[in-house]
Design a protein that fits this description.
Helix content: 40-55%
Strand order of the largest sheet: 1-2
Radius of gyration: 12 Å
Largest sheet: 2 strands, antiparallel
Length: about 90
């Protein structure tokens, strides 16, 4: 299984593992408030090879608007691609 390479504008790189089904569907896809979105992204990004603990405040304090837009646009596409190329993942 490939991992998602997240590069923030501040130079931080996170090698993010695929989220669990609960993180993706119950967390990110069903988030209806800003706080729920921050928490969902933080939970997903905490599954990284670098060992960086990502909390909702980390998202607010370290993600620029470009980082946020990039994640919201690219990460779902990455998930869809992973599932279509490897349906057993």
């Amino acid at each position: 299984m490939r991992k998602y390479d997240l590069k923030l504008d501040n130079g931080t790189r996170l090698t993010v593992h695929q989220p669990t089904v609960r993180m993706w569907y119950d967390g990110y896809r069903n988030a209806r408030t800003d706080e729920a979105v921050y928490k969902a992204i933080a939970d997903i990004c905490s599954r990284n090879d670098e060992g960086i603990v990502v909390e909702p405040d980390y998202i607010k304090d370290n993600f620029t608007m470009d980082d946020f837009k990039r994640f919201a646009s690219e990460f779902p596409k990455w998930i869809e691609n992973e599932l279509s190329t490897n349906p057993n993942s």
